Amino acid sequence: MSDSLDAYLVLSGLLFAIGSFGFLARRNAISMLMSIELMLNAVNLAIVAFGAFIPALGGQGSVIALIVIAAAAAEATVGLAIVIAIFRNKKTPLVDEYDSMRQ
Amino acid sequence: MIRKLIPILLALAVMGVVTGVAAIMLVFLGQDWQDALFWILAAVMIGAALLVVTMRDIIRCGLAMMVCFGALAGIYVLIGAPLIAAAQVIVYIGAISVLILFAIMLTQTKDAPSRLVFQTQAVPAAFASIIIAVVIALAVGATDWGAEVKRIRLATEALSRLLFNDFVLPFEIVSVLLLAAVIGGVFLAKREPGGPS
What we know:
The structure holds two protein chains of two kinds.
Chain A: H1 5-25, H2 29-53, H3 60-90
Helix pairs in contact in A: 1-2, 2-3
Chain B: H1 2-28, H2 33-54, H3 58-79, H4 82-107, H5 122-142, H6 156-165, H7 168-189
């Protein structure tokens, strides 16, 4: 089982689905950011699995995964800074109370 | 202090015993160690991810996310990418999780965990994510990856040659991106003088 590409891809699909559920369903902005991190990790797992099992890629999957990890770090920094800035104005972390642009 | 630690230690011991027994059972059922490790790590990862999206106390969500990332690092080792596993542990568990925990401590009000956890569209979201998972599984199962799917293990030296020869332009762009993200994060989270505290 641990030698088949399908197992890793299905696992990554499951993790992506869980992350998308969390992103759509949670009310807390930081929970949504954590769900985005889960989805990024799922995609990263798929990239590493492809790179490790398909010889035509020549091992490029691992390099792309490293770059994705760096991009995810940048995304987390900016996202959390935005959440902190909004919290400073609105005094709530719940996204359904951010309704000042709804008029 | 000691009395507070006892349930945590007991829980850790129970978890260790359960995973050990599960590993031994899987091995006795005719699977080798790699498969047993794969099943255990996958179960821990999916379980921790479910806890992340369903638990009420958000700081426990952050801790469960760290567990999920740790199990994922183990899966990277199983695939045969130890450098990615090390980067996962350093960047995700060491940096991003701590960043998220600090952001949780900075933004959560006292009454936030006691209110509703989910939006009103939680049930359609659950259906949509189940459909996503099923569609991905069907697509993976239906695709023929060719006869040459076999395990290749890339040594760290070869990976670093690849990173600094073929991928040197993305590498430099990522460094500029990280610098921009640091400056943007400081600018966004900075408290303006005379503004709202």
